[in-house]
Specification:
It contains 5 helices and 19 strands. The chain is an alpha+beta fold. The N and C termini lie far apart (88 Å). The strands form 4 sheets. It has an 8-stranded antiparallel beta sheet. The N terminus is likely disordered. It folds into 2 domains: 217 residues, Ribbon (Umud Fragment, subunit A); 161 residues, no CATH class. α1 packs parallel to α4 and α3 runs antiparallel to α4. The longest helix is centred in the N-terminal third of the chain and has 36 residues.
Amino acid sequence: MTALALSSTQAPRRSRAVRVAVALLSVWLLTLGLLYVGGYRPLVVHSASMAPAVDSGDLVITRAVAPGAVAVGDIVSFHDRTREGRLITHRVTELHHERRGVAFVTRGDVNTAAERWSGDSGARVGKLALRIPLAGYALIWLTRPAIILALLAIVLTLLASAVLAARATRHARRGVVRAMLAGLASAAGIVSVPIMLGATEGAFSAVADNPANTFQAAASFCATAPRTLNATADTYVDQNAPNTNHGSDAEMQVVSATGQNSRVLVRFALPVAPVDPHCPMTSAVLRLNKFVLGSSGRTLHAKRATASWVELTATWNNQPITTDVDLAAAPSGTNEVDFNVTAQVASMYAGTNNGFLVRDSVENGLGATQAYSTREGGNPSTLIITYG
């Protein structure tokens, strides 16, 4: 009698426990399903580049949002093709709204280098919604094969015990069904953890892309390489020989001497400007390369020519007029001399390209001379244009 009474009291308790287990695990699986449908993704952080805001071992939940919903200062996750497609979680430091989408600059809080990436307006980016410190370590632990097998073994043991107990009751079939449901729900809950984190690990290792983070990263907004152009025309004009052309000489001179000043003329064929809005010209440097040692301690001016000239007919008397707008100055030296002519080149793109005139900032001096190589001299002047 005592054994039967004990069995009759244990059975309802087991039945209630089974119902509670089924309910809890069903809620767990339903919650996971709703999170995925809603665009939420759990990610385990594998580095400290965002510490202390987001640290290694944290569990973060990202929410898929449109690019327009991201603001400077937000923490986002994206696939970086420059790092073998790994999923990167960094802070937005810049963003640029464009006709087709948004371009981002992101950086880890403890990093000095930044990433530049962009995506179409129809794409989605993972925006940080929740951070759970150190929870990632626990979830990674649960994905180990030995732990999964151990948990499944425990579930099978409890399932067998529940089935045997249920068969001793008056409602054996119902009890067995409940025990089976509880076992299946428990197994599904255990297996859901590595499946859930498998997407995260896949994103880190480029095995499987996370659908909520479809932006693709690039090394930079601009893929256009710097251009180094050689002069297509160069010569100098000499006040001492005002009607003489020097277009075929191996050198060209800048001279400051009373009644004997000389000025350099140089022109380049500009490349077609990139149409990519990410690729504006960021700098243009005019470089004159030495022919012989020159005088140091002088200041030279590079001006934009506003009238045309011809290499083989240019003389002092017919030299082109120039403008002092965006004048570039540089110190003379014993080697090459560089001028920042970014603004002048931009004006050439907007108007007419007549090249540059280079002269001493103070003419009619005591004979200071700079000699530079022409195309015929074998070391022509260059124009270095960079984009980005």
